[in-house]
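From the methods appendix. Each design record in this collection lists the tokenized structure first, followed by the designed amino acid sequence. Records were kept in a plain field format so they could be parsed without special tools. The example shown here is representative of the layout used throughout.

RECORD:
FOLD TOKENS (107 positions):
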């Protein structure tokens, strides 16, 4: 990954972290909010392959959101699942290899 891609990925992760850490549960509405912010920064799923790391706690929140159905994610995890063009990866803070904040809902 070149420096521009790394910078873009950090912007994407920072936006999702700020939305997740904004209080309350990580919900489908927060995914849509993050997509709107990305769009304002000219980062769209149409133009870029977007991957976001979230914590197991954030995954649990999202799986519990009644706005998503079992057809949105065919298993009991969203690891590798694409929602609105964004691929989610569930990472424990220790596995992520950087600060806990990057997974959302830092410990």
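DESIGN:
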């Amino acid at each position: 990954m070149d420096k521009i891609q790394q910078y873009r990925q950090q912007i994407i992760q920072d936006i999702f972290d700020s939305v997740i850490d904004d209080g309350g549960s990580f919900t489908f509405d927060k995914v849509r909010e993050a997509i709107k912010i990305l769009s304002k920064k000219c980062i769209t799923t149409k133009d870029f392959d977007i991957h976001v790391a979230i914590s197991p706690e954030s995954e649990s929140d999202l799986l519990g959101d009644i706005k998503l159905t079992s057809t949105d994610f065919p298993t009991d995890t969203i690891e590798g699942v694409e929602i609105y063009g964004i691929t989610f990866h569930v990472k424990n803070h220790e596995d992520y290899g950087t600060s806990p904040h990057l997974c959302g809902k830092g410990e």
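APPENDIX NOTE: The beta strands are 50-54, 82-83, 86-90.
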